[in-house]
Design goal:
With 306 residues, this protein is mostly beta strands. It has 2 domains: 6-136, Nucleic acid-binding proteins (OB fold (Dihydrolipoamide Acetyltransferase, E2P)); 148-304, Nucleic acid-binding proteins (OB fold (Dihydrolipoamide Acetyltransferase, E2P)). It is 12% helix and 32% strand. It is built from 6 helices and 16 strands. It has helices spanning 6-12, 67-71, 148-151, 211-214, 267-277, 281-286; strands at 22-29, 33-34, 46-54, 57-64, 80-84, 87-90, 107-115, 123-127, 159-169, 173-176, 184-193, 201-206, 222-231, 243-246, 252-253, 289-290. A hairpin with a 7-residue loop joins β11 and β12. This is RADX protein. GO terms for molecular function: single-stranded DNA binding.
Length: 306
């Protein structure tokens, strides 16, 4: 069929009501958001957004309401979609944005693609990877993997991807989203090593929309976390500790979930796998810990410093 592209959409979206089909690849995926309120009677108040791209650039795509339970888990990073009967809207200004793996890619930030169950009902097709043709010019998914030895030199709030062997995982904890609020964030702490430093990655992992992964992070699993943010303690604390926290677009993968993921082709991921082959499993198991209370960042060792 006759296709359009994202660059063309941005130029002529105000003058058209109906648009030609789009062929795009998903580069980033947000967590699922529930926006229901007691006074509003909506069947499925869910929303998720994705960053999708073709040869002309990258744009946000929003999946609404009952399309979320139907499509959210099938739409993975790297999935190619054929979209028809979608609508175009002005972008929501307060949305978070992932850091693209390809810094040269053009971002169309003024508008977003909206997928709805009616008015009009969007037609979504997933194109199997083996049927994707090079002449379609769809970009590959790119990552920003770092090693533990590189972490200390990165600035606060820098976005990166990491892979490591889990040596510690804490119990799930809760934090209030706002003071006096009834809503909580669920999170757990983990340590992962990659052989490039004596120090582990310290990871603050909030529950994303992947409960099956979040609940099964165990010592000795290979853990991949994407779109993590660097938190540098900016005080004068000499024993400052750098850690990483999840963002709205973070994806977490553990052993058993890696097959077929786009990051398996990344050079730093391949280097990590080579390093694990040189390690003795029995030696590493002796160093692993699970559960317990993990106070972090650590309080000073005396009340005087406190």
């Amino acid at each position: 069929s006759k296709l359009t592209n994202l660059g063309h959409l941005e130029m002529m979206w105000r003058s058209r009501v109906r648009f030609h089909p789009l062929l795009v690849r998903i580069l980033h995926k947000s967590r699922l958001r529930y926006y229901g309120k007691p006074e509003k009677k909506m069947d499925m108040p869910y929303q998720a957004y994705f960053e999708v791209a073709d040869g002309s650039g990258m744009m946000s795509m929003v999946l609404w309401n009952s399309l979320c339970p139907e499509w959210y888990h099938s739409m993975k990073v790297g999935t190619v979609l054929l979209l028809d009967k979608y609508t175009i809207k002005t972008s929501y200004p307060f949305k978070t944005h992932p850091t693209p793996g390809d810094s040269q890619m053009k971002r169309f930030a003024t508008i977003e693609i909206s997928l709805n169950v009616r008015d009009p009902p969007t037609e979504i097709s997933i194109i199997p990877e083996e049927m994707v043709k090079p002449e379609w010019g769809l970009p590959e998914v790119k990552y920003r993997f770092i090693t533990r030895s590189e972490l200390d030199d990165l600035p606060n709030n820098h976005s990166c991807d990491v892979i490591g062997l889990v040596t510690f995982v804490g119990r799930a904890e809760r934090a209030r989203k706002r003071e006096h609020s009834e809503d909580f964030w669920l999170y757990r702490w983990a340590h992962a090593i990659d052989g490039t430093s004596d120090q582990p990655f310290i990871l603050e992992l909030f529950a994303t929309s992947q409960p099956d992964v979040f609940e099964h992070i165990h010592p000795m699993t290979y853990l991949v976390c994407t779109q993590m943010r660097v938190i540098q303690d900016l005080t004068e604390n000499p024993s400052r500790t750098v850690y990483l926290t999840t963002s709205n677009e973070s994806q977490i993968f553990i052993t058993g979930w890696h097959k077929g993921q786009p990051y398996t082709k990344d050079a730093k991921v391949k280097n990590f796998i080579q390093w694990t082959k040189s390690q003795s499993e029995a030696d590493q198991i002796k160093k692993t810990v699970i559960g317990g209370y993990y106070p972090f960042p650590r309080p000073p060792d005396s009340f005087l410093k406190y």
